[in-house]
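Worked example 2:
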Amino acid sequence: MTSTATPLPPTEKTFLGQPRWFGTLFVVDMWERFSFYGMLAILALFLVASPEDGGMGMSEVDAAALFGMYMSLVFMAALPGGWLADRILGARRATLWGGVFITAGHILLSVPAEPTLYLGLGCIIIGTGLVKPSMAAMVGDMYRGQPERREAAFSLFYMSVQVSALLAPLVTGFAAERINWHLGFGIAAFGMVVGLIQYVVGMRGLGDVGSRPSNPAPPEVRSRVWRRSAIFGGVPALLAVLGVASGVIALQQVLMLLGLMVLGVPVVYWVRLNRRPEIQPYRVRLRAFLWMLIASAFFWMLYAQGPALMNIFAKDSVDRDVFGFEVPASWFQSAQPLFLLLLAPAFAALWVRMGSRVAVPPKFVAGMLLGGVSFVIMAFAASLAESGPVSPLWLLTVYLIIVCGELVVAPVGLSLAAQVAPPGFSSQMIGLFWLFAAVGAATGGQLAGITAVVSDATFYLVLGGIGLAVAAALALSVRSLTRRLADEPVPDQPATAPSPAEGVKSLS
């Protein structure tokens, strides 16, 4: 059901050419992304750092598995978070409570104790799941019936994401690696506090947009959701944290159970979705879409290595000395957003120029090919590193190529999700895309266990081989997939499904 909130008339432009209310949401999003990417840049390094240096002293295998699971749960959290915003909290309160959870999570991470690590990550997962869909919903409501202005607004949000992702690792990384790990987490918490204050002060300018649930759930549904969330979510999570912290439960066991859940949710979701009677006329096309989702999961499996094992590689195996200054390893995490900012306009122009002449499957082949090639290069760099530190250009080249792959897979995949969706199922198709991204991130983290028995070079070569094999399989199926994706015309489908160029703007 569509929100009945009345959007404010965008008459007075006072913030980046947008109404004043936009500044409130923009600043909140900017600081939320600053805190997220700042923490992301130092998390894996903190996990493997020795206790003497203030870290957790984990093995690289455990750190990568925990990191991958964290990323996959962040992807997945947007589904229940969006449901809570739509049915129970309303987008405005969901954003507020999400910000509170994120702030609490970073504060917990800044406390040097093992239980607070897991509690902090859990709070950030919950908070991010509430904030991201709610912010997008409020911007969409404000510009309801004005698609051009909405696209411009989301373009500015995309800019805030990339600028935050570029600057955050530089600030938190230096503080964490050179002064104290927990100071880095504390800076991330400070950023979110600033965003929350800005949001509370500026909420009056939002009118009634997001003030109520767009599709309110009956009281009995609300009470049932809270009760089941506590019984099946809160209590098991708390017991798991206490068990791991006390040594009663092994971290690997918890991650394995979570991994099974991550793998199972998309399967259950897909089966239930295909049982809906209104889906039946579109089954041929949706089955072809499933193959594209599986391919995208392999890409995100590769992508998830960047802030985890590749970040550790930067610390241990890259010559980071520049004119006598040792560059913090976490600063390499600014490379990807920098490349995104530089290349996104070019890719958006490329999609517009290509138009419909090139179908989605060939584009996915290109994206997977780029992902595979990047890890073949990474394998070569890791092989050279066995003899000593390598040039940072190796790692920067890998990041550049995989960003090019991301600029293909992410926007094209999101655009395809909207294109193939049966009427009334667009949001669910986009949610399904991110569910498979979660599967890829979790799988990538678990695969890091291979490094316990093989060299890093072999591990990266295996990943590169998987990427190239998926690209080859897609290439052999291009004609069939292209035909099936366009198999049936969709009655009453809106003609304004986002193009790949527009999808580039919504990578956040």
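Residues 16-217 form a domain with the Growth Hormone; Chain: A; fold (CATH 1.20.1250.20). Residues 82 and 165 are 23 Å apart (CA to CA).
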